[in-house]
Structure formats: structure tokens, C-alpha cells
Amino acid sequence: MLGRLNHVAIAVPDIAVASAMYRETLGATVTTPQMLPEHGVTVVFIELGNTKVELLEPLGEASPIAAFLAKNPAGGLHHVCYEVDDIIAARDRLKTSGARILGDGEPKIGAHGKPVLFLHPKDFQGTLVELEQT
Ligand SMILES: CC[C@H](C(=O)O)C(=O)SCCNC(=O)CCNC(=O)[C@H](O)C(C)(C)COP(=O)(O)OP(=O)(O)OC[C@H]1O[C@@H](n2cnc3c(N)ncnc32)[C@H](O)[C@@H]1OP(=O)(O)O
Ligand SMILES: [Co+2]
């Protein structure tokens, strides 16, 4: 069911500071910040040869990363995103196996303009998992 690793996400308190560190200290290519109010985050992507790193900053009052950053004020690894060919088939298979699909269980459009879903970290060895349809 799983395809490629699309990205690894890091929650950060200040996306401008984190972007400058990746661009200037690590010499990486960093995309322009994208505000995603429906997801409660501002994102940039660090473009690597074989995958991407997503930097996430909270946006708005009800950001899903606010509690995580309260516990990890300097930031930290937040989720991994795997590609799937058919997100509805993947969701239905995971539901049957007992995994919890976060939110209302319906895919939303993510930062790449493709459908995404999130799976509860307690069902995946303490790791929040995002699925993105290819
Ligand atoms: C889609 C746009 C973009 C993209 O790539 O395209 C994005 O990636 S946006 C990313 C941000 N969106 C989300 O994270 C949506 C899914 N997340 C959630 O629904 C919540 O954050 C949730 C349910 C994972 C946690 O909710 P909340 O923070 O309200 O609950 P708790 O703090 O009580 O956490 C419960 C329990 O889970 C542990 N936890 C929370 N977050 C993580 C995490 N990122 N990784 C591992 N574990 C996590 C937390 O520590 C609690 O554990 P406990 O033992 O009970 O203390
Ligand atoms: Co993501």
C-alpha cells in the first residue's frame, strides 16, 4: 500500500528563523512560505534530491501543532508522510484494521494540492502518519 516517503515534517516556533538556518547554514533550497488556514499551519519545504523536509509553524487559534510545540518549545519531528496510489482504498483498509483516521475521516487537500489524511500516532508506534495520494 505504501509508496515513497514524500516528506518528514518538523514543527518549529519561527518558520523564518528555521528557513534561514536551512538556507544559509545548511545551503538548502527552501520554498516560499505557504499559509494553509484550513490546516492551521504555515509551511515551507526543504527540497532534497530524494525527498523533502516540511517545516511547520502554527497558524491561527486552533492549530493542530500548538499542543505539540507547547510540549516541545524548541520544535521537533512532527510527522512522516507516505505516498499512496488510492487514498480512499488506503483509508478503508486502515479503518478495517482498527487504525484511527484523524479529523472527520475525509481527505483534505494538502500543501501539494493533493488529498491527504492523518493517522493517530498512538496506532503507529508513537509517530503521526500523513498519507498523500500520488
Ligand atoms: C496538510 C498540510 C500539510 C501537508 O503536509 O500537506 C501538513 O502536514 S499539516 C500538519 C498539521 N496537521 C496535523 O497534524 C493534523 C493531524 N493532527 C492532529 O489531529 C492532532 O495534532 C493530534 C490528534 C495528532 C494530536 O492532537 P492534540 O495535540 O490535540 O492532542 P494531544 O496533545 O493530547 O496528543 C494526544 C497524544 O498524542 C501525542 N502526540 C501528539 N502529536 C504527536 C505527534 N506529532 N507525534 C507523536 N505523538 C504525538 C501526544 O503526546 C499525546 O500523547 P500522551 O501520551 O497522551 O501525552
Ligand atoms: Co505534512
Automatic annotation (TrEMBL):
Transmembrane segments: none annotated. It is an enzyme of class 5 (isomerase). This is methylmalonyl-CoA epimerase. InterPro entries: Glyas_Bleomycin-R_OHBP_Dase, MeMalonyl-CoA_epimerase, MMCE/EMCE_epimerase, VOC_core. It catalyses: (R)-methylmalonyl-CoA = (S)-methylmalonyl-CoA. One of its GO terms (molecular function) is methylmalonyl-CoA epimerase activity. Keywords: Cobalt, Isomerase, Metal-binding. It holds the Pfam family Glyoxalase_4. It comes from Aquibium carbonis. Residues 4-134 form the VOC domain.
